[in-house]
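Exercise: predict the structure of this protein bound to magnesium ion.
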Amino acid sequence: MSTHRRGAFIVIEGLDRAGKSTQHARLCQNLENHGHRVKRMKFPDRTTPIGKSIDAYLKGESQQEDHVIHLLFSANRWETAASIRTAIEEGTTVVIDRYYCSGIVYSAAKGRDDLSLKWAREPEVGLPRPDLCLFLDITPEAAAKRGGFGNEKYETSAMQKRVRELFYELMQLPDGQEIKVIDAGRGIEDVERDIMERVMRVMAQTKMTEGLESILPW
Ligand code: ADP
Ligand code: MG
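Solution:
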């Protein structure tokens, strides 16, 4: 009897320069080497019309009200929600470089009373929920040593410090269940091995014969 197995849904999160893109590429390659079909994704997806507005904002070429840009980031994820579900259903493993955790904490890190973690999470409710979210943890100081920050909007040390605190706050809430902290301050190969081990463990135990869950309201 053959049972249909869906793909796994894996997210890589963390501060700027934590090594997300490096590890995303390695994880995808490693999974393919193990014979898995993989769909690589990244947020923000700067190629769509909404993504182009986000790109201009991040580069400082345009201004956006804080709630507006938050909703655009969320809309940029919703644009692809159906394609994530389809890929997973077809047995492809989806691996994303940043997802809604970044969306929530970067907006909440702005420190506005009218833009709380709870407010920022609302537009994400209903999106496909990952089986595993790897939080690549690094101190802002260690991250800055990796070539220093670039010129984009959120790449300041005060912002990174607050973002890290809020990631830890989010982990204490129900969303923290699927978040696993990875010490990203080590060498690339050590981090890669740790990630692969956790991913293989989740892929072995996840209820791959059941559908993907959604992000639930608090
Ligand atoms: P992110 O996507 O999280 O911003 P990147 O993967 O682009 O981070 O990595 C940022 C920089 O740090 C790159 O120059 C990369 O080669 C380097 N880097 C990535 N991982 C490590 C590591 N474990 N140790 C040292 N340098 C790293
Ligand atoms: Mg990156």
